[in-house]
Here is the input.
Amino acid sequence: MPFAAITYDIKAGYEKEIGEIFGGFRRVGSPVVEGADGAETTRILATAVFIRDATMVRVIEYEGDLQDVARFMASQPGVQEVERKLAPYLSRPRDTGTPEGFIATFNRSLLTCLTQISARES
Here is the structure.
């Protein structure tokens, strides 16, 4: 299963406050991402968020198309709420108020994957 990682440029020293934001995160209703025709195109398997000093990274494990993941997440109320609550703690603002802005920010924030290895695939 592929993984993606996106970065957030945050202000150092707010790990506790940011942790509280994610502690109340409203999960998506379903891991299934549907295309325009209503058929399943992608599935989000897992996510995790890591933080240290001025860097935060969200890791996403998924099956399917990463751009479908970005489009899906852009429309999720819980994701939008987290983005709003994170705004005061960002050292670089993220344009996530519209689906287009969210997708563009998501793509700019992607880390380059150097390798992915899974015991499940052997």
In short: The longest helix spans residues 99-109. The mean pLDDT is 91.
